[in-house]
Amino acid sequence: MKKLEHLNYRGFILPVVVGLILWLMTPIKPAAVPVAGWHIFALFVGTIIACITRPLPIGGVSIVAFALTVLTKTVPMDKAIVGFGNASIWMIAMAFFIARGFIKTGLGRRIALNFVKAFGKRTLGLAYSLIGVDLILAPATPSNTARAGGVLYPIIKSLSQSFGSDPKNGTQRKIGSFLIFAEYHGDMITAAMFMTAMAANPLVQTLAKGSGVNITWGGWFLAALVPGIISLIVVPWLIYKMYPPEVKETPNAKQWAEEQLSEMGPMSVAEKIMAVIFILALVLWMTGSFIGIDATLAAFIALALLLLTGVLSWQDVLHETGAWNTLTWFSVLVMMAGSLTSLGFIPWLSKAISSSLHGMNWVLVLIILIVFYFYSHYLFASSTAHVTAMYSALLAVAISASVPPMLAALLLGFFGNLMASTTHYASGPAPVLFGSGYVPQSKWWSLNFVLGIFYLVVWIGIGSLWMKLIGMW
């Protein structure tokens, strides 16, 4: 007889209690909020809390939430199921499959080793080279956890140990601590630079569209380009100064990379095909708005070519559980977040908050909203859950306060990634890299606090000026 799956039943207590309390408060809800709007709010809050307490994996939580939403007649089945046909969510799934091609062919690892070979003579240069790999992979890897944890972390760990830097021996500060923390921030910055570099970014596009703001792949990239490049240049240097490695020169890195590349052998046919298809996908994403090819269609085309050329098999697609998992829970959360708007809750909330900010200069309103958004991330263990919970409401408030819609939509979108500069549980890559033991929690929090201020200044200040200069608001 098979045993039942072990579940964290205690994790249900808080979301159920909070959800029920809100549901039972329906008789005293604000008059401007329809009953269905209040009910979807209660279900949504309970779902977000469950995403944090994790009684089930997030996919399981979303299925329970979907069933309750339809069962309570809050949203009818024909409207609830629409989330599974969302184009942005399918683009995320397609990009997961494309990322699988990088890992399966070894192209991601080869690119990283070549960067180490070319730029790894000094520890700071080594960090820049590894972040450069992240930058190259980012547009086609919607999971920043996959980039940082699946491709770069194993290389950083092997490289660090080759220099005798291992937390087990108390030698983590030799080189590993710096490289781990620099990659964490590099991954965060590249996630903010591309719409397809982090799972929640296409969700931002969908939610912004619901507020009448149409963000394109090229528009997102162009707006993030200048603050992104500044951050990629300055942040590793700041970490180098605040948390310096004991080993400053790394002449052995080149030899180590050469040995690893020698073991890999010459570039395979599969890697070459993968590289060509990746470049094609980038071109289509950047020019799609001009040539009439939707970003999701471009991702489908890339996957189709990977299947037709044999780089990926259909079994590879079926076994890419991250894609199917994301497709499931994202679809449900998008449906619920959209229902908050369509059923009247978000319009009421935005009006209530904007009335409290009435008469305030829109620049000040935008800064207050972003700072609140950023530091409230201490309460979240998932960037995606945070974006789902707050993005629509904050964007609606910003627009009602006369903030230029595109400026507000993009800055809030960027900070959906940059707010990971808070805790060791702030995003997917955080527990992977922090869990390596190279950086203690006190350092993780204190360094992140300083760098968080840097991001607020650069992305709000310089980012806004840059977007004004290129005519985006």
What's the arrangement of secondary structure elements?
Elements: H1 13-24, H2 35-53, H3 58-71, H4 77-80, H5 87-105, H6 107-119, H7 123-137, H8 144-162, H9 176-193, H10 200-210, H11 217-242, H12 251-264, H13 269-291, H14 295-308, H15 314-318, H16 321-342, H17 345-356, H18 362-375, H19 383-400, H20 405-418, H21 429-434, H22 441-469
Could you characterize what this model shows?
This protein has 473 residues and is mainly alpha-helical. It is 72% helix and 0% strand. It has helices at residues 13-24, 35-53, 58-71, 77-80, 87-105, 107-119, 123-137, 144-162, 176-193, 200-210, 217-242, 251-264, 269-291, 295-308, 314-318, 321-342, 345-356, 362-375, 383-400, 405-418, 429-434, 441-469. Helix 10 (200-210) packs antiparallel against helix 20 (405-418). The longest helix has 29 residues, at 441-469. It is globular. It starts with 12 loop residues before the first helix and ends with a helix.
